[in-house]
Write a structure and sequence with these properties.
290 residues, 8-stranded parallel β-sheet, alpha/beta, TIM Barrel, 9 helices
């Protein structure tokens, strides 16, 4: 196996005082769900004390970024208006910001929520609609100079081909971003594992990640505890860590730059071993002889 080598439009992203050097290693995005109905069973439902404890724990366990969402994105979940989403989000965001220096992203497709979150200390927006739901989102991101994590969401779209559909979605997102003046060096692309695909096509997505390299932008993937793992293994959500680990390792081998996970300590270890294998990424004190 040759060491993984990708080309990027920009070699690094400065985010919240941290430097994300693309291609050097895989970064860990930890999940905090400020919801009562998260599919993974870990929603904190506005408990600011629990949010602060989680943030501190995730930082200690090796997270590089914390992603905070206040609306469940599981299939069939109730959609919230911006007012209710903000009511859930803002106390949790403020509690997390007070407990960690890690960069924070706000998981929302509402421009109003993104604007308030960025104003309260978030560093990035994670938009599961890829700027295609709220016409004002791209302008809000550009005005704040924020980073953008943009997903291709296959829900409600006609299927043609896994990689082809993702590529078309990325193209539409990047056109909207360019029109609003978002710096492409501040964009991360997410192919949307679990968002509108038949179960087997989520696994195909991971296998075909190299077909997305020519966008020359960092890739984030979020397979953590997803129902496709449960379907394949016949396991409930609390027993899907090994399946998640397999997908994280394979995503790293396929060129993923960030993995979005619930089990931070375990997946940070998985990513570290995968990085040593496919990137040749060794800590300095363990640098092998050349």
């Amino acid at each position: 196996m040759r060491p993984l080598r990708r080309t990027y439009r920009a070699g690094a992203l400065e985010l919240g005082g941290r430097r994300f050097a693309w291609g050097a290693r895989t970064y860990i995005a930890a999940i905090i769900n400020a919801t009562p109905d998260s599919f993974s069973g870990d929603g904190i439902d506005g408990d600011t004390g629990a949010a602060g404890v989680l943030a501190a724990r995730f930082e200690a366990e090796g997270a590089d970024l914390i992603d905070i969402g206040a609306e469940s994105s599981r299939p069939g979940a109730e959609e919230l208006g911006p007012e209710e989403e903000l009511r859930r989000l803002m106390p949790v965001l403020e509690a997390v910001r007070a407990r960690t220096s890690l960069p924070l992203s706000v998981d929302t497709y509402h421009a109003e929520v993104a604007d308030a979150g960025l104003g309260a200390g978030a560093d990035a927006v994670n938009d599961i609609s890829g700027l295609r739901r709220d016409a004002d989102m791209a302008r809000v991101v550009a005005r704040h100079g924020a980073a953008l994590i943009a997903m291709h969401n296959q829900r409600g779209r006609r299927f043609h081909d896994v990689a082809g559909d993702i590529r078309a979605g990325f193209g539409a997102t990047l056109e909207l971003a360019a029109a609003a003046g978002i710096d492409p060096a501040r964009i991360v692309l997410d192919p949307g594992f679990g968002f509108g695909w038949k179960h087997h096509r989520n696994f195909e997505m991971v296998r075909r990640l190299p077909e997305l390299w020519d966008f020359e932008l960092p890739l984030l993937i979020g397979p953590s505890r997803k129902s496709s793992i449960g379907m394949l293994l016949g396991l409930p959500v609390e027993a899907r860590q090994e399946g998640t680990a397999a997908l994280v390792a394979l995503a790293v081998a396929g060129g993923a730059d960030i993995v979005r996970v619930h089990d931070v300590a375990a997946m940070a270890r998985v990513a570290r071993v995968a990085d040593a294998t496919v990137r040749g990424a060794w800590p300095g004190e363990l640098e092998p002889d050349r």
